[in-house]
Design a protein that fits this description.
This protein is of the alpha/beta class. The chain folds into 3 domains: about 80 residues, Four Helix Bundle (Hemerythrin (Met), subunit A) (Up-down Bundle); about 190 residues, P-loop containing nucleotide triphosphate hydrolases (Rossmann fold); about 190 residues, Orthogonal Bundle (434 Repressor (Amino-terminal Domain)), CATH 1.10.260. It is about 60% helix and about 10% strand. It has an 8-stranded mixed β-sheet, sandwiched between helices. Helix 11 links the parallel strand 6 and strand 7. The longest helix is centred in the C-terminal third of the chain and has 21 residues. The protein is flat, with a radius of gyration of 27 Å. The protein starts with a helix and ends with a helix.
Length: about 500
Amino acid sequence: MFETLSDRLTAVFQRIGNKGRLTEQDVDEAMREVRRALLEADVNYKVVRDFVSAVRERAVGEEVLKALTPAQQVISIVRDELIKILGEERVPLQLAQVPPTIVMVVGLQGSGKTTHVAKIANLLKKEGRRPLMVAADVYRPAAIDQLQTLGGQIDVPVYSEGTKANPVDIAKNAVKLARDRGYTVVLIDTAGRLQIDEPMMQEVERIAEAVKPHEILLVADAMTGQEAVNVAQEFHRRLALTGLVLTKMDGDARGGAALSIRSVVGVPIKYIGTGERIDAVEPFYPDRLASRILGMGDVLTLIERAQAEITEEESRALEEKVLAGQFNFEDFLNQLQQIKRMGPLTQLLEMIPGIGQALRQQQVQISDDEFKHIEAMIFSMTPEERRNPDILKPSRRKRIAAGSGTSVAQVNQLVNQFKQMQKMMAQFGELAGGTGGRRGLRGLMRSRQALAGLGDADLEALMQQGAFPPGMGNPALGGPVPRKATNSPKKGKSKKKKSKGRRR
């Protein structure tokens, strides 16, 4: 969503970074560019004005202008001020001391309200809560069916009284049921409209008065820009919102709503929707979004996604196979499927500092369809071929290509890259701890837990110091081929020439 804004801001900082020492005029020129970039990203005018004013006031100080690295200090100031307008720190869901916590979810039709009721319920369930979803949108039968279908997918119960009951009574009865049966969180999906109207607002006011919710969350579509801000202001005026859920943050809109809504409405963003999958929602961290906007990536979120998908037992099993030199196509397929569950590949790459912008500058198109091709080729192998890739002779590769709808050249490329990755895996023990391979590798594979305690600046410094092993670039996923493998054909060619000379 913030690709264009990120590229514009990065270009501004690169220009001032090339100047060495900065003058007040340099700062003013940079702030004009920043102001233009934010306005073009559909950020609220007042938010832009206050933001630029605050950055300039701090950036023209004597300590910055006379510093040895003034450009870096300006970037740091911009990041700090971005975090301020986004909310400074994460605001979690406020849970009641005596369950159940009542969460009322409101919003317009098409914003993703019903879907995000289920997504938040799924997130709360993973945190150990017992959620109950309530279908209080009686005007749209499809909303009740949708919530029940989603409830079945995530194994969370749905309370419904059909389309003829009164929404206020549904909400009250659901809360009573939750108390009787020990549910800890009640999520009430209220009716939406295509636009704000008086009957809808009066109904949600009556529900709020009847159940006294601990949280009133507005689900707003981030792709609607400033209209999302206007909708939030009206709902807040009538209901006193306690939090916001911004959906479609993976879209291609300019992103102005996300940067404006917290400052204009005065209500914290609590969750963001990052895709269509039921688990594509995450708590909102202002500092992480600010880092993404400035092209610094979001390594902590990437680590958390990996921790959610890769268990300690899976890590240990993979460790044993790597140490024993038994990493095969079955293990590789499991790794691919884990990465797919973490989210779209483009989204994951954007979280690595500098990668997203580099791909855009080189106009490299990354598609998740490549995963499908690789999976098809592996699924077309026999169990024996997956466990022992060395037996993949030309006739077998031809059969695999025919079975997967790919070419023999693609199968050859996959097998060759896989063998390169096997060599890289064989070096992991040495990279992780020299002769103490087992203990060192275990430390490497658990390193994501240690990294979770570091800030973005710490992680970036570690990367610059070479603290991460070169094997982080996976050749099978389009990463760099190890230097040794790249040079080997040249060595082979030169030997061949020498032998010809000896024959002569």
